Each structure stands twice: as C-alpha cells, then as structure tokens.
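[Q] Does anyone have a clean structure-token version of this?
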Amino acid sequence: MLVTLKEILSESVAKKYAVPALNGHDFFTAQGCLLACEQMNRPLILMFAGDFTFPADFRQDVHLRMLLEMARSAKVPVCVMIDHAGSYELCMRAIHYGCGGVMIDGSTLPFEENVALVGKVVEAAHACGVSVEAEIGHVGGYEGTPDEGIAKPQFYTKPEEAERFANLTGVDALAVAFGSNHGPYQGTPHLDIPRLTEIRDRVGDLPLVLHGGSGLPDEEFSKAVAGGINKVNYISGMMINCADAMREFSNAQAGKRLTSRQMLEVGMESVVSETRHILEVFNTQTLTIPVSETETVTARRFQ
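[A] Here you go.
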C-alpha cells in the first residue's frame, strides 16, 4: 500500500518505535527490504537520492515508477520519498512523480533561510497531500562538512531551535543531529541522548528522524528509539554489508561458473536478513491504515 510519510509515522510517537528508511536506489535492494517487511508485516520507507543522481543515461522516471508500483502492490504500508533534496524544484519533481514524502534539506543555511525554504515546500507539498521532512542542526558526513565520519558537536541540534523551527514551518517530521554521521563512522559513536530527550519534550508529538544510522551499534539505536526517534535512515551500512556478502561468495566460487543472478540472490539474502534484524532493533510495529470501501490511499493521493 502506497502511503504518505505522515501516515506511515502516524503511530510511531505514541507507541515509541521507529520505521526504517532504506535504500531505494536500486531494484534488488529495495525488493529485499520490502520482502523482509512483508515477512514481518511491518511498514517501510524507501528513499532515493535528493539530487536525483543515478548512472549516466539512467531513466529516473522509470526507476521511480518502479518503486511506486512496488509500494502500491505491497502487502504493507510503504512510503516512497526523496532524501536530502537541496531545492524547492527537486521537491516539486518528486511530488510530480508521485512520492508521498519529500525531505528538503536547508540545514546548512542560516536559521531564517532554512525556515523560509522549508515553509515554501510545506505549503506546496501539503496542498498536494504530500508530507515534508526537514532538518535542523546538521548531520555531517557526505553532505559537505569537514572530517567525514566524525560527528561535530557544534552542528548538533539546539532543542530550543528545534521547537521554534517546528512551530514556524509546520513540517511533518524533523531530522535532528545528536551524534550520528552519514556514511561509515570513524571511531566510536556516542549519541547525545539527553539532548534528544529534551528535543522530544519540546516538539510534542512531531516524529523525529535519525540520519546517518550506519555504523551505530544496536544498543545506540535502542537508546535513540527510546529517547524519541521515529524514523531511522539506514543505507550505507546495508549497501556495504550486501557488497561484502556478494564479494565473499564470489571469492568462494573462484574458478567456477558464476552468474549475475546467483550474485544478486546472495545480495538479496543479506538485505532481507539485515532488514529483519533492524526491524527488531527499531521496535517497528505493525501499522494498519484504514481505507474506505470506495477510496484507496493510492487513488486518493497518487493518481
């Protein structure tokens, strides 16, 4: 079932769980994530790159139609969304394609400019029935901050700014920085849970998002979810683990006949296994979205 970001997170705050936001950049990884969620009857968020970066001559529209069709035919609620869009125009493209959520990232901008950009996207997206995620503070890593792989406390979200930002923009989910980092983590991560707890207290029932989940140990995820996180972006770690599984299999088959299908099956098994594991770690729970007899979520929002 294809749903919006707001719908898929609708019970997460009250029930204190997080929905995994996983890799929608390629078909077989997305399929593995969805298969695991269907096996466990849990919701799923599929994301794709905010700058629409795909291999040269890749048909972006065809790929997104594929993700959307996977979501429509899924046995569980699925939200397809753009991640870290850097402009209003990119968010509008994602809405045009049919996404149920857009993440507009103005986190490197001054506070007032971030508010203005996010507010503009919220106004347009909400008019189309689409949800909006934004970021206050800044999660470093692949997004241009120095020393990739090291979380910078000076970029952490200020609780009072998170409250003000949420009130001014009307966003449906808010990404906050409290010690995670995009991509592989250097050193030992230490999440600032007291900071997260204060942010949760200040923003009420607004879903909070953890970016840069790769590299965090299970116990840190559990603390984050207990502290108020409701969506966890986890892509790099799964992609690396999948590639490692395929590489190990390839090395073991050296000198033997090996097909691409065999490789993809090994990769798929890795993705399914890891997705099932994080669903347990995130305490992700079954979500039932009521749909009237005459009107489906798909028809209502994504014709």
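[Q] Thanks! Anything notable?
[A] Residues 1 and 77 are 5 Å apart (CA to CA).
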